[in-house]
Amino acid sequence: MLLIEPFEGQIGDTELRKLIPFLKELATLEDVRNVDIHYLEYAMKLKEEENTEKKLAKEREKTQLESEKLGSKEKSAQTKRLEEGKTLECIEGAVNA
Question: DSSP code of 61?
């Protein structure tokens, strides 16, 4: 037996659509009598995939933040070199004047 949320006329109801991948997977099995066990296995697999995707998203975000920090440090170093160059030009200009 599968338990799903009851349909109460909601326009955005997707309970049956959510079952399509599971039912397709179930259709490949010879014995579906323990549908509840198969569904629990399927739900656990989905949860693992979801957790894996969340971990990957966090890693991508962390990598992006690190890249932005490095980029910011590079820009600061470039700005500092430019400022030092301008100061040196001013000193040279004053000396030559």
Answer: H
Are 32 and 22 spatial neighbours (Cβ–Cβ below 8 Å)?
A: no
C-beta of residue 2 within 8 angstroms of C-beta of residue 11 = no
Say which residues have a Cβ less than 8 Å from residue 7's Cβ, sequence separation at least 6: 13, 15
For 45-90, the pLDDT digits (tens) are 889 999 999 999 888 888 888 777 776 666 676 676 666 666 656 6
- CB 13, CB 7: distance < 8 Å: yes
pTM of the predicted model, to two decimals? Answer: 0.53
Give the DSSP letter of residue 36: H
